[in-house]
Amino acid sequence: MAIVVNMPRLSDTMEEGTVAKWLISVGDKIQEGDILAEIETDKATMEFESFNEGTLLHIGIQEGDTAPVDSLLAIIGDEGEDISALLGGGAAVAEDKSSEAEVDTEDSDEEANGTGEIPEGVEIVKMPRLSDTMEEGTVATWLKKVGDDVEEGDILAEIETDKATMEFESFYNGKLLYIGIQEGESSPVDAVLAVIGPEGTDIDAVLNNKSGGSKKSAAIETKKEDKKSDDTSDNKEASISVVDGERIFASPLAKKIAADKGIDLAKVSGSGDNGRITKKDIENYTPSAAAVSAPAATASVKADNAIAAQPVSMALPSGEEGTEEVKNSNMRKAIAKALGNSKFNAPHFYLTIEVDMDNAKESRAQINSLPDTKVSFNDMILKACAMALRKHPQVNTSWSAETTKYHKHIHMGVAVAVDEGLVVPVIKHADLLGLTQIGSAVKDLAGKARNKKIAPSEMEGSTFTVSNLGMFGILEFTSIINQPNSAILSVGAIVEKPVVKNGEIVVGNTMKLTLACDHRTVDGAVGAQFLQTLRYFVENPVTMLA
């Protein structure tokens, strides 16, 4: 089925884009992650990747032409597919929108005297589309509050998309006058996120003009009244609301750490703005001694009364029951959906081998003795996998309903744990990189992922994935395939233990590797042969230095 690709909004201020260059032509085959075109925005010229696979059937905007956001950019589908209905429908829709625009223009002319224009210097910031597939975003954390000064380049908020949590920068200077989406709330792309402008601006007039409707005005008035009542409350009331459990102001990371440690957030005092609980507050929290001694004293009194009332009593354990519901983030929802689809749609099977790591340890020590050189065992595994994939192309494939796609490129996905869940940065053309180059790429991308600086394009296009839990002491485990990959390798810890070499029992170092395969594309014998090749490269690191 043909898919319509629209002109993307690549920045918050982008209203239209210019196709600087098409990198493919009509009739070309497209893989997910291929660069379709270079698009000029109001900020920069950026590469635009395809999120779909198929044949390029139609180009809607020629090189050098400019078109508004959401205009028909291209159509991708099956070769020979009839797209006349899409082209005709698109024209009809355009005509409909044009007529609607005329009506809207007339209405706005009639209401011009009532609403006025947005004052000079005031900017309405909308929920950005941070990826091509993003339909809505969730504000994870506001890093600015109403009344704060904002400069171009300042981080306004952290926004959760369907792929990652990303920092959102301001493109304007001024004061933060209004916040339209609160922390934890989700809104569609282009919803009013904030208003930035000069101090003293009439926000009601700006928002009424933006909405152009009495319902919005009434909603804003209600929201202002609620906000006014919140503003008149002092810090004492804020702390009471936390203790009473009505609302707990805490960062997502603080909530996660508290949940892991079993800490009740209602008992933690926040040091942030408006009593907000931060990571530091959770790490420094210790249960009050008085809180511990009070129940003990109460229990003592009750025990004395019980003894007076009856000769024998039984001390029963007592405790508090509690449950906290934490809203699922967009990232967690995306992870659940992707892994659920993979596990239940792809028939998994698993193969495990044990690898001798003695030579690998010696080689790594020699490599790292060189100046400015640092190679990890994980880097060696990634390089070995890339070389093994080149010899076993059946494993470097993707399944689709009608065909099996053999990828000629080798892009290695590396599972990285972050506070909100799991992301998979991609090392492009890993088979062409040396060990130190792979190590630098992994370090750079993992750092970006943990600091929420990684771009969606840096997490797309993998053909094979490696997940390593060896650093946590895990000896052996199985992973769920990261589709559309056909396989994923699980890497365990290196263990020192007795092994048999040349008929003698000696101390050796071994590591277990488990390959999860999609049986639709990879048969058992193919997976076993891949692991044999992988073992050869790992046990003979000199072969990876050539």
Description:
This protein has helices spanning 84-115, 203-211, 214-232, 235-243, 252-261, 279-283, 289-309, 330-345, 358-368, 377-391, 435-450, 524-539, and strands spanning 3-6, 16-22, 29-30, 35-40, 45-49, 54-59, 66-68, 72-77, 123-126, 136-142, 149-150, 155-160, 165-169, 174-179, 186-188, 192-197, 348-356, 397-399, 404-406, 412-414, 416-418, 421-423, 426-427, 464-468, 487-501, 504-518. By secondary structure, the protein is an alpha+beta fold. The chain has four domains: 3-115, OB fold (Dihydrolipoamide Acetyltransferase, E2P), CATH 2.40.50.100; 123-232, OB fold (Dihydrolipoamide Acetyltransferase, E2P) (Beta Barrel), CATH 2.40.50.100; 235-311, Dihydrolipoamide Transferase, CATH 4.10.320.10; 330-544, 2-Layer Sandwich (Chloramphenicol Acetyltransferase), CATH 3.30.559. The protein has a six-stranded mixed beta sheet with strand order 17-26-25-24-20-23. It has a four-stranded antiparallel beta sheet with strand order 1-8-6-3, with no helix packed on it. A four-stranded antiparallel beta sheet has the order 5-4-2-7, with no helix packed on it. Helix 10 crosses helix 12. It is globular, with a radius of gyration of 29 Å.
- Class from secondary-structure proportions: alpha+beta
Kindly report how far apart the N and C termini lie.
45 Å
Highest CATH level, the class of the largest domain: Alpha Beta
CATH topology of the largest domain: Chloramphenicol Acetyltransferase
Number of domains: 4
Outline, from the CA principal axes? Answer: globular
Radius of gyration: 29 Å
Number of helices: 12
Give unreliable regions as ranges.
90-115, 211-246, 289-303, 305-309
Proportion of residues in β-strands: 25-35%
The number of E-state strands comes to: 26
Q: In the CATH hierarchy, what is the superfamily of the largest domain?
A: Chloramphenicol acetyltransferase-like domain
Q: Characterize the biggest β-sheet.
A: 6 strands, mixed
- Level-2 CATH architecture of the largest domain: 2-Layer Sandwich
In order across it, which strands form the biggest sheet? Answer: 17-26-25-24-20-23
Helix residue percentage: 25-40%
- Overall mean pLDDT score? 80
